[in-house]
Amino acid sequence: MSGPPRGLVVDDNRISRQLLAGHLDVLGYETVLASDGDEAWDILEREGTSFDVVLLDRRMPRMDGMEVLARIKASPHLQTLPVIMQTAADSQQEIIDGIRAGAFYYLTKPVQPEVLLSVTAAAVEHHARFRQLRQGVHRQAAALRQLQTGLFRFKSPRDGSDLATALAAAMPDPQRHVIGLAELMMNAVEHGNLAITYEEKTDLLARRALDTELNTRLNHPDYRDREVTVAFERTPDRVVLTITDEGAGFDWRRYLEMDAKRVFDTHGRGIALAQSISFDTLEYRGRGNQVVATARVPRDSELGPNRDAGAAPLVSGAPASLPTHQGAEDPDRRRLVSVQTHLIHTQADLRASQQRLAADLAAARQMQHDLLPDPAVLDTLQQRHGLRVASHFETSSELGGDLFGLRGIDEHRFALWTVDFAGHGIAAALNTFRLHTMLDEFPEWMNYPGEYLSVLGVRLASLLATEQYATALYGVVDTQSDTLRYAAAASPAPLIANLRTGEVTAGDGSGVPLGIDSGILYETRELAFPPGHLVLLFSDALLECRLGDRTALGESGVRGLLSEAIARHGEGVLLEQVLAPFLDRVDRPLTDDLTALMCVRRPDGTD
């Protein structure tokens, strides 16, 4: 999905429609309004897959909300679209009926804004996960469609999600099965192996602490060795998956359908969803730590014109053409010829796609290099402040997650920074573009490192996903006071070196990474930085990437590189001379993006 989340608001009351749309505007959503069920269904038929959530009034003239909900859940393309029902009715049975019919949540009027915003955000996040699962099915190898039997093990929710998309690709209707598979595998980890109770999950979701708790338990001695086992078996008429966890089991009967005790919770629907949408049968065994999910393989006569059973094997090296036969053609031969023709077109499409991807990556690489300091700006800074500046920027894949820069503040001060986003590749690179657009948003704070890093942290925390963050160091050099004032967010410590003696002083790079929490305040630290000294900033790849002897430099090793280069080359030492012993020995490709920024104050430097 590109752009802001999109919501459809359906209510026959104009004021109610406008109020709901106004609340969604607070979240930055794009909203489309419908005055009744007929108009809503017309919109959903045309552009339903573009929406992330539907806010639906239950009681309306013509087509009421329950009929719209039923049509959504009966549509293969819309059935995972979350629907939040809202009405003035407070009948407990009506609420239960709505939830059982597939509503994500039920709000009673007058709607409380904080509840609406919280529930809507949860629904959109839920739907985004389903989108990702369905997209992941398309990326799985075609060989999985030949899978007959298999035994798989995993420990974490992420591994379970990856396995769900892989196994769904081997099933009769991947788009339908992947939803239920992911839910069952998530349950096996969270409620089975990690023993998170329903009540605990409700509390963790409310505090947005579920991911933290999952990571804690995955590393706890009581749970870290537990595995979920998935047995896959294909027969001519069905595919059977048996999912077994090592937990104590649970009362699964409560979760096959919604009940009155859970209608106002934003989770607890996974098992009911798997049974109603994804599988033909769902059977729990024993104490509830084993579930058998069965999907029927349709007969050829039941397949539509654009579907097959999803399991026809392809043989590499098949002949380009087959001899014709007199009389009626063999159906298997027709099928194979059709598959070969499809493969020819697929290979051509793949080559064209690879060419487009290569061109796009080349353009993205150029755009990322364009984020780096402009040579003209560097020349001005070097002349104004008596500097010599050099940098090294090397990504571990096509695109990187590092960013560095320098910028003048006034006649005797300039700023410099390095940022390293978690991970590498396209996702990390996109975050560097995000950050680059923010750097000019707070010019009034650029002379105050702690405050500047704090406001950047607030902005990033509102944009980055839970598992995304950045380490960073932002500093201000004052050539009148001969100081480097800086703030750090879990970055490698800045190094100051005396060009005459080779003595190296390390600063303090500790701090909370940017994007973890919006409430972090960063402190400003200070190092002496007079003429005849250099400052070296760098990403942790210099500390952690393995050399040919399988060791890493670490902090002392980097300090040693710097002091030895000064001892060898004196006051004219170059960054490439500092890095050469590392670059000559490091294993390639790099396991992380490498950035180094060296700023030398000439011994005779003047403002």
UniProtKB/TrEMBL annotation:
PROSITE patterns: RESPONSE_REGULATORY
Listed SMART domains: PP2C_SIG, REC
UniProt-recorded name of the protein: SpoIIE family protein phosphatase
Region (Disordered): 293-332
In-chain residues carrying the UniProt-annotated modification 4-aspartylphosphate: 57
Keyword flag Hydrolase: yes
CDD domains: HATPase_RsbW-like
Domain of life: Bacteria
Gene3D superfamilies in UniProt: 3.40.50.2300, Histidine kinase-like ATPase, C-terminal domain, PPM-type phosphatase domain
Higher taxonomy: Bacteria, Pseudomonadati, Pseudomonadota, Alphaproteobacteria, Rhodospirillales
A Pfam family per the record: HATPase_c_2
KW Hydrolase (keyword) present: yes
Any single GO BP term: phosphorelay signal transduction system
All residue ranges annotated as the Response regulatory domain in the record: 6-124
Keywords: Hydrolase, Phosphoprotein
Organism: Roseospira marina
Annotated GO MF terms: phosphatase activity
